[in-house]
Design goal:
- It is a single chain.
- This protein has 7 helices and no strands.
- With about 170 residues, the protein is mainly alpha-helical.
- The C terminus is likely disordered.
Length: about 170
């Protein structure tokens, strides 16, 4: 056995050290990308919750049906990206359109704007569940699948199914 004293150049150590450094760099970049993605998703959820609140004034505009439709489609795209279930997005759309129709009919028939309180309460419940889903990752109320199913069923029971004319004339989600 030969014992060497002094500095020894060991290429294996250099290769292992380089591999560890490269791995740490790649891992750091991956973690940074994940953190950025998490922040962007959080911003999207918060922006979607804010946009959800912007639908209220559009519901009250009797001449703003197409503007309301456009806002609903934009919001649907955001909510879909945020992972809100399709049936809940449809419940939001249906109750919002029903509120708009209720208000527009009141103005047209009685010259009196306003919303049916039962319908408005139902929509408020849908909005609360959607908002809860959007903000749950930010430490707000957690919404379970049971909450989503409960409100979707309530909407299905309260609103009549659309007529064939409505199906032909509107873009559904």
């Amino acid at each position: 056995m030969v014992l060497v004293v002094g500095p020894v150049s060991d290429t294996g150590s250099v290769v292992v050290g380089g591999a560890i450094g490269a791995t740490a760099t790649v891992l750091g970049v991956a973690i940074t990308a994940l953190i950025q993605l998490w922040r962007e998703r959080g911003r999207l959820k918060l922006d979607s919750a804010i946009e959800l609140a912007d639908l209220g004034p559009l519901m009250a505009n009797e001449n703003g049906y197409y503007e309301l439709q456009a806002a609903l489609h934009r919001l649907d795209a955001r909510l879909s990206r945020c992972g809100v279930p399709t049936e809940l997005r449809k419940a939001l759309r249906d109750t919002t359109i029903a509120c708009w129709r209720n208000n527009a009919t009141g103005i047209e028939q009685h010259d009196q704007p306003g919303f049916d309180s039962t319908l408005l309460e139902l929509r408020s419940r849908v909005v609360a569940v959607v908002r809860g889903l959007l903000l749950q990752s930010m430490g707000h109320n957690l919404r379970s699948k049971a909450d989503v199913d409960k409100i979707v069923n309530a909407v299905g029971e309260a609103l009549p199914p659309p007529s064939q004319g409505e199906l032909d004339s509107e873009l559904f989600l």
